[in-house]
Design brief:
Distance between the termini: 51 Å
Shape: globular
Structural class: alpha/beta
Radius of gyration: 23 Å
Helix content: 25-40%
Strand content: 25-35%
Strand order of the largest sheet: 4-3-5-14-6
Length: about 270
């Protein structure tokens, strides 16, 4: 006989008792799913569809092998991978999990860090021979710049040099894009200096196609994390996929390790 909702002419919301009731129900349903999944794991192979939302910067060139190995091990799980640059709430969008850098604002989600995403400025040797090599962060303002449009700080960036206070600079990009792969292609066409995550830049840098610019001035890093609903944490399909991700990407990513081995980036990470 107690009210679970508070209603008026404009909206409806959960009462305090309703919030408590919902929280208890979520825990109960989650535990029930966990028990059912454990029984299914014992008796059959995991089945069903797993919907994953992921960043194109991470997916392209880095995720296909994991997907192949995962499906070879669990052939009855159908993967639906939606590749998009937006930071989404998997609960609202109907995904089992989301692989992204920037977290959505939601108390219903659990997050698990996978690896740091470093950023570097780079350009082609041809461009640098033609237009010169920047020696200080302010020198970037004299160049054509390609910049990722999705950073929360917009075009403002802090450079952490080998000594002294960070240098904050408002960049003036000539190319803004939500595609880091397009920015890499822009640099490979000798069009300008771009800021790229190492997971996209590393192969071109180690091949000599791109050169790091201002390598002693480190930029802050982000973390690529997997976000998933609290109610889905006991899902067998999700649990297996998370285990595969952690086994493949925990620790120093291989694209960073080759740059570390060549002493092109510092071991320390600034977040």
């Amino acid at each position: 006989g107690a009210p679970l909702f508070v209603r008026n002419t404009r909206n409806v919301r959960l009462s305090e008792l309703g919030q408590t009731f919902l929280r208890d129900c979520v825990e109960l349903v989650g535990r029930t799913n966990e028990v059912v999944n454990q029984m299914r794991e014992v008796t059959t192979s995991p089945t069903g569809r797993l919907r994953v939302h992921a960043l194109p910067g991470f997916v392209l060139g880095h995720l296909a092998r994991l997907l192949q190995e995962f499906q070879a091990r669990y052939p009855q799980i159908t993967l639906e991978i939606v590749v998009n640059d937006a930071a989404i709430d998997p609960v609202k969008e109907g995904f089992d999990c989301a692989l992204q850098i920037f977290p959505p604002r939601s108390e219903e989600l659990v997050s698990r860090k996978l690896f740091p995403v470093r950023r570097v400025f780079c350009a082609s040797p041809t461009y640098l021979r033609r237009w010169g090599v920047p020696r200080q962060p302010a020198d970037l303002l004299k160049h054509r710049l390609g910049w990722y449009s999705g950073y929360p700080t917009r075009e403002r960036v802090a450079f952490h040099g080998p000594a002294g206070e960070p240098v904050s600079l408002e960049l003036k990009p000539t190319l803004l894009s939500n595609s880091v792969h397009l920015l890499r292609e822009y640099a490979l066409e000798h069009a300008g200096i771009v800021c790229l995550p190492t997971l996209v830049a590393s192969a071109a840098v180690t091949a000599g196609e791109l050169v790091l610019v201002l390598p002693k001035h480190q930029l802050s890093s982000f973390w690529l994390s997997v976000f998933y609903p609290q109610a889905a944490r006991s899902s067998l399909k999700l649990k297996l996929f998370l285990e595969a991700l952690v086994q493949s990407f925990t620790g120093t990513p291989p694209w960073d390790q080759v740059l570390l081995d060549a002493t092109l980036i510092p071991e320390s990470i600034i977040e």
